Amino acid sequence: MPPRFQEPYCSAGCPVEAALGLIGGKWKGIALYHLTGGTLRFSELRRRIPGVTQRMLTTQLRELEADGLILRVVYPEVPPRVEYSLSAKGRTLEPVIMALKAWGEQHARTSVSAAASEAAA
User: How far apart are CA 33 and CA 100, in angstroms?
Assistant: First the structure.
């Protein structure tokens, strides 16, 4: 586990803080979601996340790899081929990611339609 999470938990919220520290950020959860479908090359992952820059996606993927949530395989080809997949530890997040997806589908649509209704009134 990374050093930032090795200290004993100080309060009831610390485990939540630790978990959000691992998967938090604008792009990590989205990358993890797309990797639940299987192994993806960097370019495929970037295409599925059109708003992210190459540099930011690289940074987020490196952090996920360092935290043991994804696996990165580099094939010695020209040009190099890099593939990403969820690690065993990352697979344990699938129920959480799917729950977030379901919550977003239910509540994000409700929020958008409510905001549209208020704007029309």
Answer: 10
Measured distance CA(94)–CA(3) in Å, rounded: 24
- Both tokens of residue 1? 């586990």
- How do residues 62-87 score in pLDDT, each as one tens digit? 999 999 999 999 999 998 899 999 99
Provide the whole-model pTM.
0.79
Taking the CA atoms of 31, 70, 92 and 11 in sequence, report the sign of the dihedral they define: negative
